[in-house]
Please model this.
Amino acid sequence: MSRSTGCCRGARFFVAAAALATFVGCSADEEVATQEQAARRAVVARLGDPNQVLLEPTLEIRRVRLDDASRPAVGVPLEMEFDAKFNSSGQQLRFSVGTQFDPQEGARKPVRFVVEIRNSQGWLPIFEEVVPGATSQWFDREVDLPAAAGPLHLRFKTRRVAAVDPKNRATDASTDGSAYWGAVSVVDAEADERPNIILISLDTLGAAYLERYGGEPGTSPEIDRFLANSFEFSRGFSQYGATLPAHSSLFTALYPVHHGRYTMPLPAMESLVRHFARAGWFTLAYTENANVSSVFGFDDGFDHWDDGHAHGFDAFKNHGNLTTNRTIDWLDREGRSMRFFLFLHTYEVHSPYIPAAGEPLQLANRITPNDKRVFDRDPRKMASALLNHTNGSRPLSKRDIARFRALHIGEIRSADQLLAKVLSKLEQLELDRDTLVIVTSDHGDQFGEQGHVGHGNSIHNKLLHVPLAFRWPGRIEKGSYDAPVELVDLIPTVLELTGQRIPEGLNGRSLVGIIAGTEISDGTEAAFSEQQYDSVECARWKGPGPCRIGRYSVQTRRFKYVSSEIPRFERFYDLSADPNEARDVSSQYPAEVARHRALLASNLEKPRVPPTDEAPMLDEEIDDATQHRLRALGYVE
Model:
């Protein structure tokens, strides 16, 4: 394990592992500066937490999606008021307001939202706004609160608004509908040194394509620099080679076989992000719809979840920039005012491969100098071509595969530039030393290995090997670890790094001991992955009903074992001699095969969720926008 030292900024550490206290100490000036900055950082008390807020009367908090954004919200009639008592005095009130009407109804009149605060003289109005009924979207608002000696007592009102016709005659007020108070929280100043957290998922970024891991020169200078200046797990593995189940494992710290989130219908997900919300972080996400969407329940635990506005094929030229810019805008406005957990997810690297002009496209053209085709005029053709190759109906030529690979690498350079923008903004805002940043991915893509192109239909390490690194300047020394770790380990590690209890019953474990240097590899580390569907094989079988192949793998530092239920087989690879997993060497290592088979069996013996066709569905239908996005990404025809 390689290690280097860095300067510490902070008076104490919040990780459970005592060894992290061995980091370099702070100077007096640095300690004072840190205390001042910590005093400015605020914690959040939110509606819906019975330990923080008393609702009068008791109202249900549920997830509400309006347009492209989701909020935990109280839904009320258009004429209603309710009280809430917060256990803190509070400096600022944050909330979202929105309305929703039956689409079969006619006119949708405006609705007035009012907030009042209780003081010694009675009720004092502190907010009033009329929201147009014709617009179904969230309006995010914040109000500075007057100084209060004790707990905060607020009243929230909604009122119908009568319209006025050109002859100044009042008409009927709003028709029946619902008004929503979303993400209601009170921000309270508190000396708190726990860090901000930014989790960045660069979808479809396989580690093998980074220059740091032997990829093309010039592909990933910013990502490589981040990895080099962080604690890097050079053999991080995803638990599934597709976006939805892999991200479900990331947020639950459960293997796919235990959370069961493969395809529709989906069991509901309880995200570990809830723990950060309950502990006072403001939780928000900027994503790009499709398989990481509030429609599929990924917004669980988040105060603000933004699915983005990239719905169809025309959005691909700039979708990563839009997502990154929304993130940077929020950091500019709010990043220094509270402690936050921010999830940033982009499909920039995902097919259809349309690298940005400039360095990304130049890189792609340098890789295939005799083939400079682009597909940005109609990305549906690329999505269709990849899907047809995957399902075996129309295999791609070697020339096509080589060009797609080059364009994919160009897109990695595009994502590399986006990451640089976010990290630069953190430095500009002087948030970099107070923020734990994690960079990872859900899976990679294949380009001809074992006959596959794209992802979702293989258990090959080209898909499963992903970057994984933690950066917290002054608190985490840069270093590296080369034994297998898993994507399910990510959030348990962040929980321990920020001084929180790790729930029982998870498949993931904390990596803090490794980061601190107190846990040394003993050669027994293993990473589990699985694959439940393969459209090529399913199309060939033409069998009735759902097609589940039940394929699982376990890999240790040197070996990888693969077991398949349908068709039944097992394979064993020596990764040190055969990293491309081309030769089954099970006959040469019978003892190792037995050991790895037992490792896999111990995982599969744990309780498993029901098959997805028996699991409860999420509440929401898949809307047109999400369906367009899934089609554009090549997931559906």
User: Anything to note?
Assistant: The domain at 45-189 is CATH 2.60.120.1060 (Jelly Rolls).
